Amino acid sequence: MKKNDEIEILIEDMGEDGLGIGHLPLSEGGTFTVFVKDAVLGDRVRAVVTKVKKHYAYAKMLALLAPGAYRVEPVCPVAARCGGCSMMQLAYSEQLRLKERRVSSCLSRIGKIETPEKYALPIVGMEHPYRFRNKMQFPVGVGKNGEVQMGFYAGRTHSIIDQKTCAIGHPVNTYVTDALRELFSAWRRRYEDIIYDEMLHKGLIRHVLTRVGFETGELMVCLVINGKRLPNGCDEEMTKALDKALDAYHRDLSEGRIEEGPGVGEIRLTSLSCNINREKTNRILGDSTVTVSGSDRIAEVLGGNRFLISPQSFFQVNPVQTEKLYAKAVAFAGLTKDETVWDMYCGIGTITLALARIAKRVYGVEIVPQAIEDARENAAANGVTNVEFFTGKAEEVIPKLYAEDPAKYRADVVVVDPPRKGCDPALLDTLLSMSPERIVYVSCDPATLARDIAYLSDGGYELKAYQPFDQFCHSSHVECVSLLQRMSNTQSKEIRYL
Ligand code: SAH
Predict the structure, then answer these.
(1) Residue 378 maps to which CATH number?
(2) Which residue among 82, 218, 258, 365 sits deepest, i.e. has the most Cβ atoms within 10 Å of its Cβ?
(3) Which sequence positions are flagged as catalytic?
(4) Cα 390 to averaged position of ligand 1 atoms, centre (Å)
(5) Same domain for 38 and 174?
(6) Alpha helices per DSSP H over 270-416
(7) How confident is the model at residue 238, as a pLDDT?
(8) Are residues 267 and 143 in the same domain?
């Protein structure tokens, strides 16, 4: 097989990035795997090969020869091009099956769990998988004809699709981006370099981040800029433009032109800020944020607790599903008010505070200093006093504290909720020596979850149950909560890495 070859192929599975996966028979026996862009599960397609590697190839669909049984017309007109929703062409029920299969396949292949299905609780999907996201990040750029563009990156590139609405975002975003696109265009006529050019690393406005508190109606708008501030007078113009945008949103809302959904109601611009990112980097946010008007944070209510959220702090993007996810994590923790608990990778303390209500004491650790500031204030504001937070890398802070005072920092139950790369071995080793009765693992990447479960299994833990949650409908990502239990001493195997 070589580049530009045309092939016919049946799509038998879908990969992490939403690519269709098919297998072509080889003349010498066996099969060759092909990842096909734009093709979905069950499709038979003609495709052109775009890249050939030793054991697999990439191709792009040219023609749909026979659509799969689960192919649907996507709700969004740019779904096929947009990097956000890679699976909108696949029926939602089938997306859920695919995610369940991905988790169980990782657990058996990487996690070495014999029959993972034995421990699986059914995936928790959404009844209405649209308009669920509370956070959006819009790249800003200039198109070929000099027009200001604002929207979404096309899949696997940084070219911007200038799109007005997003089927999975809160409807207020359309009003905000319409107003800002118009304002930025006016600014561009005044200040040539006002829009950032990624290639030249020149210009000011890079991204716009929005976040909506679905329960509180509080809106955050944060401009990410490659500089210290906007030109004189721009702050006021932006505040005015956004006030007007919200007037239009409320008018349409009261006249029934906005579909009902989670978080749809009165919205207030609570926090307008500029985040400073002067680096030549793919990372969206820089380290410091300057408030332009209102507060530096917005509030959201989750599981009965009220949380303040800074622009740099992590907060789950799907509040409807998050309530269910955290409830399961807390249930798996099995607390009786007697336990000491670690919440590792705690963010602004969302899980920590839920645990604290039914634990003796909870420690949280998190790398982002602003998130820990938020977490401390959130605990105090919710009257939670049996928590303590630490700033730093979990894999450095916890081994150090545990070595200093093992009696104080040992936990009966540990909750971990790491980013996609999973837990560092140094952290897992400390976990094993701490030897908590239960470990609740909240994961956004089944491959690293399975890797870490294998490590913990070798150290004497047993997977008892897991449940996938669909936090990211129409994308290939899947969240999963797992419960691991310490085996009795006679059962536990030798700890490999200690
Ligand atoms: N439990 C929280 C946050 C989970 S997201 C919630 O549900 O809201 C993962 C968090 O881990 C992020 O807040 C991220 O900033 C943090 N993080 C990433 N690497 C880390 C590390 N090495 N040590 C501690 N925290 C880390």
Answers:
(1) 3.40.50.150
(2) 365
(3) 444
(4) 12
(5) no
(6) 319-333, 350-356, 369-381, 394-404, 406-409
(7) 98
(8) yes
Is 91 contained in some domain? no
Query: What ligand 1 atom has the least distance to the C-alpha of 394?
Result: 23
For residue 225, what is the domain's CATH number?
2.40.50.1070
Average pLDDT over residues 389-399: 98
Residues 252 and 341 occupy one common structural domain: no
Q: Cα(244)–Cα(429) distance, rounded to whole angstroms?
A: 55
Q: Could you tell me if residue 161 is inside a domain?
A: yes
Confirm whether 231 is domain-assigned.
yes
Q: For 342-378, what is each residue's pLDDT tens digit?
A: 999 999 999 999 999 999 999 999 999 999 999 999 9
- Residues 296 and 332 both lie in one domain: no
Q: What are the tokens at 319?
A: 């509040």
Ligand 1-lining residues (CB < 6 angstroms)? 314-316, 345-347, 350-351, 365-368, 371, 393-395, 417-419
pLDDT higher than threshold 50 for residue 228: yes
pLDDT at 491 over 60: no
The predicted pLDDT at position 495 comes to: 38
Pairing type for strands 268-276 and 288-294 reads: antiparallel
Q: What domain range includes position 246?
A: 135-309
Nearest to residue 106, comparing CAs of 343, 495, 422?
Answer: 422
Judge whether 83 lies within some domain: no
**Does 299 share its domain with 246?**
yes
Whether 68 contacts 41, CB under 8 Å: yes
Band (pLDDT 50/70/90 cuts) for residue 489 is: low
Are 292 and 167 within one domain? yes
Q: Tell me, what's the pLDDT at 221? A: 98
pLDDT in tens, 423-465: 999 999 999 999 999 999 999 999 999 999 999 999 999 999 9
Question: Best mutation site among 305, 310, 345 for ligand 1, i.e. most ligand atoms within 8 A of its Cβ?
Answer: 345
